[in-house]
Amino acid sequence: MKKLTTKLATAAFATAMAVIPAHAEQGITDTEILIGSNNDLSGPFASFGAPATKAAQLVFDEVNDAGGINGRKIRFIVEDHAYQMPKAIQGMNKLINGDKVFAMLLSLGTPMNIAAFKLQDAKKVPNVSPLSAARQMAEPFSDLHFAGTATYYEQIRVGVTYLAEQKSVSNVCAMYLPTDFGKDIKEGAESISNETNGLNFVAETTHKPDDADFVGALQKLNAEGCEIVALALGVRQAITVSGTAKKLGLTGMYFLNSSAGFHTVMAKVPGGVTEGMYAASGWADLLSRMDKPEVQKFFGRYTEATGEELPGSGALLGHSAAETMVRALQAAGPDLNAKSFQMGMESLNYEDVVSGNTVTYSATDHQGADEVVISVIKDANWMELARE
Predict the structure, then answer these.
(1) What does pTM read for this prediction?
(2) Are strands 381-387 and 373-378 parallel, antiparallel or unpaired?
(3) What is the pLDDT of residue 24?
């Protein structure tokens, strides 16, 4: 009887082991890697989120068509939160607890990413190249948080300094959404003003994501003597601000976007509505580098696949983030897990021709690119002015 019990137990154990996947890491099987993205495909930042996820999928399709990475195909799962926190929480839970993705890529929104960190970290789910340049994406340092570019905070500090010197102006202001994203930009403008002789932070206005009338806000800032106005608004809102300022005759105001407003479509608004707007961003505009064969190839493939006339900044970011992910997965090797992926990310050092950045990660630095690119809209195109 004892021998029979032992045999039955052994058989039961063997059966149980047979149904356990050979690779028990979340989001990884012998044939597949699940990557998730909690994004804005229909809200105020959809002009970034929608093309970014399309461009990333194109990169993954190309990799999969070539056989995948160490025999595994990448499956990219995207949820639309429309820049609404309740939907973002729902999408995050689905991706991490339901789909059980291995890593998150290109998730959009500062508050959305911050809210997800606790669950992601507990599940050891890496967060790579979020569509947010807030300081919290890589600060404080975390083993599995990897930011793509210079922070909003640093971008605005560099941009304000540049405009103050070039335009010989001194009064700095901010128009922003009162979120973690907006506060980062407002604090960047305020801090550099307080630290620099001759600069003064004199006024601010806060706005909701669906605000569309900025007459009162601009009149207030004009009355306060604002000359440099740092913007932390949606792309459509920033366009409206520029057009309204022109109608009001506020020619002495210089509007400064961060990377959140550095979008190709902003330069293409008819009638010169956005002409003269500035941006301090973590990458160079795509159209300004069409002489590069790699950029031409990406441009052609994206427009052919999507039917869109321009890839734009969102597509650029999606392509670049997906390339980072692919390189890290390759560097991690066949025994893929959170630790080997971390080591793969920390080994990356390459030139990203599409974004115009040098991308470098290390065991002590989880921000891929550091340069800030200053640009201005001239003749319906973003023109690069300086880099720091």
Answers:
(1) 0.88
(2) antiparallel
(3) 65
